[in-house]
Amino acid sequence: MRDPVLHQLQHKLPFLPGFQFDLDKDLPNQRKSHAFDYSNGVAVFKEAPGIGGIPIHGQERSKIHTSVELYPHSDNAGEGVPAWVAFDRKVLRFYAYFQEAVHERREEQYRVRKVNIYFYLEDDSVHVSEPKTVNSGIPQGTLIRRHRIPKPESEVGQHYTVADFNVGKEVTFYARTFKIVGCDKFTEDFLHSLNINVPENGTFPVDPYTAHRDELKSRMRATRPRPPQTSLKKFLENDRRVLRFYCVWDDTNSVFGDLRQMVVHYYLSDDTIEIREHIPANAGRDSNTLFLRRSKLPKRMRHFLYGHNNESSDGEYFNERDFMIGAVLHLYGRPFVVCDCDDFTKDYYYEKYGVETFDPVRIEDYEQHDSDVAASEIPQNVVQGNYELLLPPSPLTPAAVGQANAPMPTTAVPMIGASVPPKKDFRKLMLYDGVVLRFSAVLRATKQVDRDRRFVVSFYVADDTVSVFEPKARNTGIVGGKFLEKQRIRKPDGVGFYAAEDFHIGAELVFFHHPFILTDADEYALKFMQSHPELFPKQRPADLGTIAQQPSNIKPPTPAPTLHKWQEDVLAQDKPLPAPVTPPRSAEGIKKRVTIVESHDPPTEKREPESLVPRSETNVHYAPAGANNYSATRMLDNVRASAAATVSAQ
């Protein structure tokens, strides 16, 4: 019903566009609904009606349903979360297949292809993938990429939801029908939570061509059988698995050899062996611990001959069955004694071979020297600070000093800092600071290669320290250089250190089991020993030679010049010497210049002026061209004058 007041107001307005209004208020709600809203702080899209709450034409018919409508919701609206948060990374997996027609082939008319259908709960997207089959000849992998797949019979674009997938159902994706025969455990439990009954998993139908190929494979036999190649399988199963053995190599029989500790790594992935040396601190060896590069280790050395097959079988290489504790393995001719292994290696041998006992071999048994000297027989004064006796005996040490050079047990070694350091003689240090006596020495050894070595032994008088240097010699095979660092050296008997009275020519000194014989000394050392006989009581004066007997402040006289035989023949003739004749100088005839150097005056007694033969200072003569006879005569005159001056001086 129209309001009369509004009707009168309508008539008072001009009849022009913009002044005419429909003033009927029959509709209770004239607002326009909005489709974009916020739910729990998240922007969402709502299916809103038209103006006044009246549904738009076709709005109910075109509504697209999602799987969210089927998911269980919480009673408390404030606790709800979006589906893409609640079902993030949650995927349903179904096992399905489809048949593909094959034309113009006798072996098969259709092909059964197995696929996996993945349904993503967060956004109702579907992904179809086909597992790859070996030698199928078909491009396999992803068949349909992940997206919302529309239903073929829907007019408004309705896509597949979770209710459309179940075991035993058929789904059509882009004109290709898939038969679902099973699902995994997570998918089955989720469908049960939605009150959807899930049948039991079925089986895939038999593919005719696959059955045909299996029958052909069963009848195929290799014409040239060969052992199976299991290297890849072995690598995948045993990659990064390494057995570790602790071994000892006794190399004391060789020159400068000693007991060397090795760590053998056996790689289970490819049966290769790597050997690393355990080098203790201050051992004097290079820091490179790699002893053998990782490779297969043959049991015996192979000889390579031209035209012969040198390939070795697996039985000719060391394997894990050869490494047992206590075994002696000859690795490239070197005997290695397996002493122990780590915990992983013990567990591996227990699980695979059932070995339960792993009695380690004591490395200390190899380090002890064969000697009958007991620890109780060693005097206590020898024990204190006698560290060099703990070293392994050198092959240069003679057998006669076996009792004196017997090593002590490690239990008798004093702790660091237990012994009192020797006191320094400051008076001796001030008197003889910088005095170094150098002696030449040789080794007393049985081998010729050691007897030919030469050493320079330097003795520092100020603090009684000794250093040994070996000069480099070509083609000897021995690297020269510093042989022994400057230090105080204890005597072999263990009582006291080497001092000045022990150094003399012919003395035999033992430095760390290396016997040295002093054969000679330099001139400075000989003079020092001659002038300080109280420091060197064992030095015989006859060994010092004639160098030390001469005074050092008097220069020896210059010996008189000796005459040649031809000079004596000239003087025997007793003929007067002709006066020197100066030839005429001509600028055109000067061709050659001859210089006669003045002879030295010998240190003789005072001479009379008449006995001297006059000489010219730096005589310069010019020989014209063609005057060879004159030049020879002039040279003879100069020789006679020089000889006469020598005789008169004597």
Automatic annotation (TrEMBL):
Comp. bias (Basic and acidic residues): 598-610
Alphabetical UniProt keywords: Cell projection, Cytoplasm, Cytoskeleton, Repeat
Kinase found in the keyword field: no
PANTHER family assigned: EF-HAND DOMAIN C-TERMINAL CONTAINING PROTEIN, EF-HAND DOMAIN-CONTAINING FAMILY MEMBER C2
Name of the protein described by the UniProt record: DM10 domain-containing protein
A Gene Ontology cellular-component term: axoneme
UniProt-listed SMART domains: DM10
Ranges where the DM10 domain occurs: 88-195, 239-353, 433-533
Phylogenetic lineage: Eukaryota, Fungi, Fungi incertae sedis, Chytridiomycota, Chytridiomycota incertae sedis
Pfam family, one: DM10_dom
InterPro entries according to UniProt: DM10_dom (IPR006602), EFHC1/EFHC2/EFHB (IPR040193)
Region Disordered, residue ranges: 596-625
Record keyword Cytoplasm present: yes
